[in-house]
Specification:
Length: about 190
């Protein structure tokens, strides 16, 4: 589908319904740049109507892989961007009734390209750092709920995600012990 331009953003559809790749309008000159990373009205015009209630900032070293995370309660939509460094960002459709259930899409986000990845409710999310380090900022549409957080194994063979990873990624204990996709609790 062709990109949908707006005054503030260019919205690109991905292979998964509802997951969007967003390019903000960047105003650059010899002093630097300015961009709006979020505008409720412009996002709503593009179909992003979530009310975001929490902002998160993640710093990670090279080859760190975080995910695939999701919550069963307080289900979150996310708007992800990178302010420094580069990541491969991945969304996996966990909506059993969806025609794309179990499929993934990915995007390269960086401080240089300034792209944003919108991931609606019902998806697992994860990212791999490809640069020496990365600062990842993301908005969430609901609050973090430790008790309902679930993790799917990053290298699950049923998902066959091409992370473009070099060697073995650096994982947290929680991510290393994650469930297989076929055992995961999903959304109806």
């Amino acid at each position: 589908m062709a990109p949908q331009p707006s005054a503030k953003f260019t919205i690109n559809q991905t292979g998964l319904p509802g997951v969007l790749l967003i390019q903000p309008r960047v105003y650059e000159d010899d002093r630097g740049f300015f961009l709006e990373s979020y505008n409720q009205h412009s996002m709503a015009e593009a179909g992003v109507t979530d009310q975001f209630v929490q902002d998160n900032h993640s710093y990670s070293a090279s080859n760190v892989l975080r995910g695939l995370h999701y919550q069963l309660r307080n289900v979150q939509a996310k708007l992800v961007r990178v302010v420094s460094g580069e990541i491969v960002d991945v969304a996996v459709d966990l909506r059993r009734a969806s025609s794309t259930f179990g499929q993934y899409c990915k995007a390269v986000l960086s401080g240089e390209n300034k792209l944003m990845f919108y991931i609606p409710r019902g998806f697992a999310h994860g990212f791999l750092v490809r640069s020496p380090s990365a600062h990842v900022l993301y908005k969430s549409s609901d609050f973090y709920d430790t008790g309902s957080e679930r993790v799917i194994l990053w290298n699950d063979p049923d998902l066959a995600i091409d992370w473009e990873v070099q060697g073995q990624p650096v994982l947290s204990a929680k991510d290393a012990a994650a469930r297989r996709f076929r055992e995961a609790e999903v959304f109806e």
